[in-house]
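BUG: 3D viewer hangs when loading the predicted structure for this chain

Environment: internal workstation, default settings.
Expected: structure renders.
Actual: progress bar stalls at 90%.

Input used:
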Amino acid sequence: MDKLVIEGGVSLNGPIRVSGSKNAALPILLACILPEGPVCLHNVPRLRDIHTTLKLLDILGCETSFEGNTVCSEVKDLKIEAPYDLVKTMRASVLCLGPLLALKGEAKVALPGGCAIGARPVDLHLTAFEQMGATFDLDSGYIHGKCDKLKGAHIHFDFPTVGGTENVLMAASFAEGETIIENAAREPEVVDLANFLIACGAKISGHGTSIITVQGVPSLKGSNYKVMPDRIEAGTYMVAAAMTDGELLIQDCPFQELESVVYKLRKMGVSLEEEEGGVRVRRANGLLSGVDITTQPYPGFPTDMQAQLMTLMCLANGAGTIEEKIFENRFMHVQELVRMGANIKLKGRTAMIRGVERMTGAPVMASDLRASASLVVAGLAAEGRTDVQRIYHLDRGYEKLEDKLSAVGAKVWREKE
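Structure tokens produced before the viewer hung:
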């Protein structure tokens, strides 16, 4: 098992490029089940979850190739079962449920696994598909769904679920008649999926708002499509620049999609300026201030940036709070940051952070993807050596992270534990 070793206390300076979005690429890859003919996706990050998804597509009967950052896929003989061995490692696998029901009228998908950050119920997905005419049995850890033909429906989500919106969006593209999704997730990755489906011939409107309308079509065609850049990776680099008191030019940065993060960073004393070639990030006057943050569905502050902003607040003047309203178990990085000298107190779903003058390196353990990123950022600024263990979490969401950080001055490398 690998670990990441960091000798901290070095300012990061120079250009750093953002890879394609994992959270956009995964549903788009599973949507490749739907079109007739070949699909080529560009700007796909080379990550563990991507390779897992390609294995799943192969099992489902798609021929795939992955060269550079381009994935090409074509359906040959579509199967209906997504096995547990693959699905258990990646919760996004449940997104094949909608496409399979739409095309085959049947799907057998293992209940998903993934990060240890709380419950991930798929009830919202299943309830929506039942409204569209499907029936489900839960047997031995598998969701077994059947339908004669999915029909358009008026679906209202109790909560703006990203996965549920994406699953229904794919299925509704093939359903008979019109589907209206109310209280839909508005995340940019949902918009990217809708834009891909539209490029394949789907009739979708309202994506990016809370009401999405889909007119079912009899078939979709293959297309070429470029996946959006990863806003969470870009946000992580923003924090790394401020954390190390450096200056980074973040290239391929989805700046508009990071509005809530940019707003909080500016309140903390971080300068972020768009210019030709990217977004330049540095401390505005050398000082940082604590802020109060509440995670919310998009366009609110993203839960996937909570751990990184907490780490930055550890070195800020004064105090700040973070209230986690999306997942109930997403403060597992707190005790690891405390081991590095942070002053953080937990009360329910709220973390209270008081800035300290410095942090020190220590052996720490990643508990999930974004927690691992926060520990890497902490290690970059800490005095001495930090060993980040269990970085298989990190490899699920950041492409060549140590190479990118090394290129801008970080002393970071990978070792066997």
